[in-house]
Design goal:
The chain is mostly beta strands and 106 residues long. It has one helix at residues 80-85; strands spanning 2-6, 12-13, 27-31, 36-44, 57-64, 69-75, 87-93, 96-102. The protein starts with a strand and ends with a strand.
Length: 106
């Protein structure tokens, strides 16, 4: 997973902005480790057509160790309290590295 770090203030973002929030245009591409922790999570009971067959399912906002937050689908059967404590690891799905929670073990 690629991120972008500001050379001036060190802020990391997932998308390459034209400039950092600090105003600097000095951004370098970095490889993100894919590890993080669950920031918040919820169960979806309604979704767009391609995902209706999977309802209900769970999603989480994960704060990566480098700072950015990403929304991910949760795989596994954790309770809400268990998910909050789980570490997260990036998995390769369809050729794209994405953070994924899988029963907290890898």
């Amino acid at each position: 997973m690629t991120g972008y770090r500001c050379s001036q203030c060190g802020r990391v973002s997932l998308e390459k902005p034209d400039r950092c929030r600090c105003g600097s245009q000095a951004l370098e591409a970095i490889e993100l480790g894919g590890r993080g922790k669950v920031y918040t999570c919820t169960t979806l009971h309604a979704a767009a057509e391609p995902f209706e067959k999977d309802l209900p399912f769970q999603i989480a906002i994960v704060e990566l160790d480098e700072g950015p937050r990403v929304t991910v689908r949760i795989e596994g059967n954790q309770t809400s309290a268990e998910r909050q404590a789980l570490p997260v690891l990036a998995a390769d799905l369809a050729g794209k590295a994405v953070p994924l929670i899988v029963d907290g073990e890898w």
